[in-house]
Known about the structure:
Layout: H1 2-16, E1 23-25, E2 52-58, E3 66-72, E4 80-85, E5 93-96, E6 98-100, E7 103-104, E8 107-108, E9 111-117, E10 125-132, E11 135-142, E12 153-158, H2 165-175, E13 182-185, H3 201-214, E14 219-220, H4 241-246, E15 262-266, E16 269-273, H5 285-293, E17 304-308, H6 325-337, E18 342-345, E19 351-354, E20 357-358, E21 372-373, E22 379-383, E23 404-408, E24 412-418, E25 423-430, E26 440-445
Parallel strand pairs: 1-23, 12-13, 13-14, 16-17, 17-18, 18-22
Antiparallel strand pairs: 2-3, 3-9, 4-5, 4-10, 6-9, 7-8, 10-11, 12-24, 15-16, 19-22, 19-23, 20-21, 24-25, 25-26
One fe (ii) ion (FE2) binds near residues 225, 226 and 347.
Amino acid sequence: xxxxxxxxxxLSVYIAGPCNGGVTSxxxxxxxxxxxxxIEHFPPPSGHNVPEQVHITxxxxxxxxxxxxxxxxxxxxxxxxxxxxxxxxxHKHKTHASTTTYTYHKYKSGFIHHATIKRxxxxxxxxxxxxxxHETRQFFFTTPPKEGPDVPYTFGIIGDLGQTxxxxxxxxxxxxxxxxxxxxxxxxxxxxxxxxxxxxxxxDVWGRFVEKSTAYQPWIWTAGNHExxxxxxxxxPVPFKSYMHRYHVPYKASKSxxxxxYSIKRASAYVIVLSSYSxxxxxxxxxxxxxxELPKVNRSETPWLIILVHSPWYNxxxxxxxxxxxxxxxxxPWLVHYKVDxxxxxxxxxYERSERVSNVKYNITDGLCTPVKDPSAPIxxxxxxxxxIEGLANSFTEPQPSYSAFREAxxxxxxxxxxxxxxxxxxxxxxxxxxxxxxxxxxIHNRIWYPEEED
Length: 455
Ligand SMILES: [Fe+2]
Ligand SMILES: [Fe+2]
């Protein structure tokens, strides 16, 4: 009898793990590196100069503009996008793009066009067309509703996507959910830098791969370390060169001086994008901008304050452990003061959700250096689980720290369904399940309008 009891105790320790914190899910189906899909899987569209790699993002601060970007491989012409409201197809408007090219080592880009379509109506479906003559392509998007405190809106959340078969599974899972209206992308796009001389053909392939989503709904871009493309040893010393030629964001609309940090309003959310790989110390441009930005957020207009930053501040994986620590030290007191609802990060290739904790009391001499529960603190979500070529980060620190509520090394994506000013329903979907299955879920309570602890 005693032996049986000891067996049951030992079995329960084995299953649950030696945890002090939340749940560590040992649901791991795959730990080997993922394999990139062959370049030949994503050929250019057939034709001489057919537009490709089409993607859209928000083009202003409040959602009435859209930046349409595309590449023409051989000639700059045409650099015009036509658009029309779905119910007014006789009324077509033209917008001229700015066009750029760049070289990277021995690679030469196609003609990259960015056009900002302005003064759109809210909550309206538009068609748009790029290309020339018989080589045109048509797509559509829907503008967001006008901002307001109780406007429902659903974001998809994807990080560290890459271009493997797992990446494709993540994207297909997200797209099979009809609720997602825009994607909050958490950095690390193509992983072209995995290849010799950062083979920039992989940037083109990535643009073709994600077009099935990015051409139809805005992706809000965050820069990760794989966007640095820093290669001084082969004559490429300019950080973010490829990324910044290819992905434009409306940074000037939020008085930012760099496309690497900016903000947008969308429906009932205020989204602030930060850069882990730009200076953020006192007096730096990013520091000064964020200091002036946070007091501007009107939570009566946009109750949900969400921050995107590539490298997580609270994460308990051994991979990249504490890489976000210095930025946390700089900015966490502001985020607690302004009651930020959520911080979304990527970088660590697994999934983790934190408790609402802060670690802002420490002053070197007082010894108060442990994160504590704090109702004014954001929830930190790590979603570096898009499925890239580096594979899963499947080594968690043990025991699980008390700030960690749930963690699992699986690929997947999340959705955030904002219902009104008080409640949003958050779900995480692993690729091994069918999309409707939520492996982790939580009703999130707004920090200003309903600052109660989540169940
Ligand atoms: Fe990263
Ligand atoms: Fe990554």
